[in-house]
Amino acid sequence: MRTAEPRIDREETLRWLRETDRTATEALLARAYEVKLEHIGRKVHFRGLIECSNICRKNCFYCGIRRDNAAPQRYQMTPDEIAECGAQAMEAGYGSVVLQAGERSDSRFAAYIEDAVRRLKAVGDGSLGITLSLGEQPQAVLHRWFLAGATRYLLRIETSNPELYAKLHPEDHSWHERKQCLHGLREIGYQVGTGVMVGLPGQTMEDLAADVEFYREMDVDMIGMGPYVPHAETPMAEQAEGFDAARQLDLALRMVALTRLALPDINIAATTAMQALHPEGRELALKAGANIIMPNLTPVRYRPFYKLYDGKPCLDEDPEACRHCLAGRIAAIGEEVGYRALGDSPRFQRRQAEASEVTAG
Ligand code: SAH
Ligand code: SF4
Question: How far is CA 120 from the centre of its chain?
């Protein structure tokens, strides 16, 4: 069983990114949806999102919880609260959770997360899949969290262009180290996810085509990619004038479709940032080739403090309401929810099978 071959090359990707005709764009999205049906089917898998802390040592210029933003009250959920979110996920039939936070590199944080992962592993029958999204970490820490039970890691490269990356971050943030971290995750045995922000100031269509190429070169298992959405309390807010939400969403949807064509058998998230730009943004992403949704499980009282960008939806919706709302939205577009399943990407499953064939041979 081989991983699926790409259905598109870089030149065609670039052509589609430059396409201005709406009808033609619809055809691209429909083609990507067909490829999704062929390789993934109609099942959408849920990953309950737990935003366990907004404390961050980094200062990315675009992000609302960057270190130098004094506005949000800083919080860290207790291990009990995290386990409670895990229990809610189990009860709701979500097969997996994602633990996400600002980045920290102190040993107390490493121990806190290790404990949280163990607590989540102990929920119910122990079947919850655990994804981490906790920024760049030393290899030993990533290994420790893997041994505790986390099996997937999402680390967006943000842009595959190191020069653009340098403009979006302070000098001590390194694109090369971030990329190295992605390699390290693969070595450990994680299912590896990455992604970019689409529509960043200064980002060209060539950059976006190169991003899709980067996903392929890195041979990732999952993608979490969404539109860049300005946040008023960040250094990039002043570049937000003229921000065109419709254009931004259109570009992000095209990127989802192009990524599906390039990597037919991976998991692609319909991210919340899509919904920040359009009430049905996530459904549109599912129809453009995405197959994963991350319902927010963070306790409602913490949500106002975890705003990476402005206009983040569902700030006051409790998880129960969220579950019903999402199930209805998914049924309305003719898809089904894959309850109580891990929903690993077929690509990862094939990679595992190939590795065991080699060992057996
Ligand atoms: N601290 C971790 C995880 C939390 S941030 C990390 O940085 O990896 C998760 C993602 O939020 C980032 O990777 C970035 O792509 C996204 N993000 C931050 N600010 C954003 C903005 N203004 N618009 C859209 N996405 C944003
Ligand atoms: Fe911190 Fe992640 Fe935001 Fe950067 S994107 S400031 S690392 S939370």
Answer: 20
Ligand nearest to the CA of 72: 2
Dump pLDDT digits (tens) for 242-274.
899 999 999 999 999 999 999 999 999 999 999
Length in residues, the chain: 361
Residue 312 tokens read as 């983040």
Q: What is the pLDDT of residues 73-97, one digit of tens each?
A: 999 999 999 999 999 999 999 999 9
Burial class (CB in 10 A: 0-12, 13-18, 19+), 237: middle
Q: Are 129 and 96 in contact (CB under 8 A)?
A: yes
CA atoms of 290 and 282, how far apart (whole Å): 9
In the DSSP assignment, the letter for residue 237 is G
List residues near ligand 1 (CB under 6 A).
62-63, 100, 102-103, 133, 135, 155-156, 158, 197, 226, 228-229, 231, 273, 308-309
Q: Nearest bound ligand to CA 234?
A: 1
